[in-house]
Amino acid sequence: MPSSPDAPCLSVEPAGPDDFAAIAELTVGVYLGEDLASERYVPQLADVAGRADQAELLVVRDGERVVGSVALVLEGEFGEITESDDEAAFRMLVVDPAARGRGVGDLLVRSCLDRARAAGKRRMVLSTDPRMTAAHRLYERLGFRRMPERDWSPAPGVDLMVYALDL
Q: Could you tell me the pTM of the whole model?
């Protein structure tokens, strides 16, 4: 369906401090609302300022409204699953349920890939919950492959799958 000239379009850009509350609300709401995280993970999900100190935060806007976010890790320990300086990672990708099916997740992932390539990275890695099947389809469509040898468990009862894409 074509959009009218007055319809807001999606744009991806670096997040600023004014976006932190919206990112926190969206991230906590989706992860808890879809039973993808326990209450004990809420402080980390809500700590957007902390993420901003360790990663590049990107948002997708629909007009003025934040409808998606991701933390791109080009260096440092926040990547958790990176094994070398040649690897980048992204974490906490989230899309507003009301905006799904519009390419928000695709836009965020492609933006992370572009930024990682520009930073000279040779591989993008990510970990994902086995229940996030829509995300898995997106990653596979974009060329990511499973790396079961790097699957891991950050906490008892939390098993994460690893995907990677050579850049």
A: 0.91
